[in-house]
């Protein structure tokens, strides 16, 4: 059983610590100019973090206990490809969702 | 007059964030149900989600406590998972750093994968936006996502019911983020960074508490910056 003061200490410390991580650069640097080489690296933050964040989830989904699932893998490629070609995130999400449900339905129909 | 009104940009943030309801909702449910099963009461579950606002780190801390780990270890595991947000913070600083301190603090509290990913994508597409317009968009995305986070946490804690597995909402998050990554692959440098991020994070997936992702992201940022310099130099010699 988890609870009581230990749990509240964890909640408070994790809350404060996470806030400080989020505030770190935004708070300390604020509107001071950052050197060009730093900005050059920061420009790539979204494409450096987000693909790495989802790659393991795509290849080893928790829902299939880490087994690579063709329906999920194809849906991921469709979402990425549609976003790249169409330049619209919303339509890419729709395309990915349709590919996922079509793939899962096929897997179900094929009895995999 | 220049650019769209702040009100219309705020509305655009609200709308752009709508698909992410399917990402945040099930995740809040998942955390609430797992913590209820671990014996946490409603107040504890809600406070956890309200104060920390980072589902993956909350689950990490909870699982340490469930394995009879110490509080210190639970805090450490949770914070390690959240270190990627320091990169979000740095990446948002050129866009939001001029806000007054209280607003920067509020923006920091609202800084999650979804608000960050949506906002930075728009900022790069619309560099002419004023500071207030950027904030309006950021707050718009949070206006959609945060209430969903709070409410589904509460509903999950009260009902103990998870979203049915047949809906496959576990995969809403990969699809939503991949859909954002696609349009962001504007240059060879962006594509190279994304590729390094994927390969490195898969190779380093065995490292604990998201540290593999941190290393992968740093390598990917260095790759992007380096390729950008090469391309500039090549253009320089060609001219």
UniProtKB/TrEMBL annotation, chain A:
<dbReference type="Pfam" id="PF05437">
    <property type="entry name" value="AzlD"/>
</dbReference>
<keyword id="KW-0812">Transmembrane</keyword>
<keyword id="KW-0472">Membrane</keyword>
<feature type="transmembrane region" description="Helical">
    <location>
        <begin position="6"/>
        <end position="29"/>
    </location>
</feature>
<keyword id="KW-1133">Transmembrane helix</keyword>
<protein>
    <submittedName>
        <fullName>AzlD domain-containing protein</fullName>
    </submittedName>
</protein>
<feature type="transmembrane region" description="Helical">
    <location>
        <begin position="41"/>
        <end position="61"/>
    </location>
</feature>
<feature type="transmembrane region" description="Helical">
    <location>
        <begin position="73"/>
        <end position="106"/>
    </location>
</feature>
<dbReference type="InterPro" id="IPR008407">
    <property type="entry name" value="Brnchd-chn_aa_trnsp_AzlD"/>
</dbReference>
TrEMBL record, chain B:
<feature type="transmembrane region" description="Helical">
    <location>
        <begin position="20"/>
        <end position="39"/>
    </location>
</feature>
<dbReference type="InterPro" id="IPR011606">
    <property type="entry name" value="Brnchd-chn_aa_trnsp_permease"/>
</dbReference>
<keyword id="KW-0812">Transmembrane</keyword>
<feature type="transmembrane region" description="Helical">
    <location>
        <begin position="135"/>
        <end position="155"/>
    </location>
</feature>
<keyword id="KW-0813">Transport</keyword>
<keyword id="KW-0472">Membrane</keyword>
<keyword id="KW-1133">Transmembrane helix</keyword>
<dbReference type="GO" id="GO:1903785">
    <property type="term" value="P:L-valine transmembrane transport"/>
</dbReference>
<feature type="transmembrane region" description="Helical">
    <location>
        <begin position="191"/>
        <end position="224"/>
    </location>
</feature>
<keyword id="KW-1003">Cell membrane</keyword>
<dbReference type="Pfam" id="PF03591">
    <property type="entry name" value="AzlC"/>
</dbReference>
<feature type="transmembrane region" description="Helical">
    <location>
        <begin position="167"/>
        <end position="185"/>
    </location>
</feature>
<protein>
    <submittedName>
        <fullName>Branched-chain amino acid ABC transporter permease</fullName>
    </submittedName>
</protein>
<dbReference type="GO" id="GO:0005886">
    <property type="term" value="C:plasma membrane"/>
</dbReference>
<comment type="similarity">
    <text>Belongs to the AzlC family.</text>
</comment>
